[in-house]
């Protein structure tokens, strides 16, 4: 190859160099804990590289992703409407099935209206960035999901973090602020890594004198909490005190996409100003049909939620018996705290070697020292599945 002096004189591509040097990517490639390709799935059984494995980290809490009614609804929608709406809701992408789903979601959540978006991440981002602006103050639980942080950064508002699930710390911040300054409080209903439920009653009472706009991401509460599965806000009887409920359709709703629910005024404002809505294609006919049918099943067949909680109680009881640290989880999202990154990788690998599929989370996804194996219970698990998981985990914790 001819010598090219330009290769020496040309400025270095510093962004490319940063990608090449990134230690996080090197560690991921070394341990290979993420991006595993699942070849097939039947309930809680999956095939990975020719091996049958037990899925212990899915968000399919109610096990509806393979429900015959959900599959049939998706097939019928595909046949009737085709594969895509090929446009945003603002332009050519709105369909009658979108409004049907939105109206049903709003009624179920106890709100006047709702909007569905093409991803849960976009919904939660838009639930913040659409309503907060430069000069406002956002008070946020320091453990909220990345999608909410993205919305906070996009809004341009000032930010104050308060200690996780700590109403007292929130109050200490609020009393120092100008009462007339527009304020937004952002929390999750259920924290997906910790399994904690937000103390909404106490948080709302703290905020009441300060006229805060209150946003709850209930992606992991919808379908799981409440006597009808209406989620954290309904379960704690705070529907009228929360301005916006947002979340994902990919957990209990067995689909993909996201939603934002609130008053008619709030949702109409959202339709006018949400970049996440205006510049994103609408969810597909199949997605909408799967979500709507899952919502029907949630109300028609309460046995799925009942089975989920039977499994959750049984699983946690066994974990407590072996001394596993589950971070005081209150929900079917059950972390196994192992303490450091290296140990998390090794325990995850030990579980994989025994054909149990789990997911690890390390900083910055969790606080330092809270490196964990994230497990999640499904209504489709059997007691035998959960016993197997705990038995292998017990051996792995002793070995590693």
TrEMBL record:
One of its GO terms (molecular function) is transaminase activity. It holds the Pfam family Aminotran_1_2. Keywords: Aminotransferase, Transferase. Signal peptide: none annotated. InterPro entries: Aminotransferase_I/II_large, AON_synthase_class-II, PyrdxlP-dep_Trfase, PyrdxlP-dep_Trfase_major, PyrdxlP-dep_Trfase_small. This is Aminotransferase class I/II-fold pyridoxal phosphate-dependent enzyme. The keyword Transferase applies. Its cofactor is pyridoxal 5'-phosphate. Residues 52-393 form the Aminotransferase class I/classII large domain.
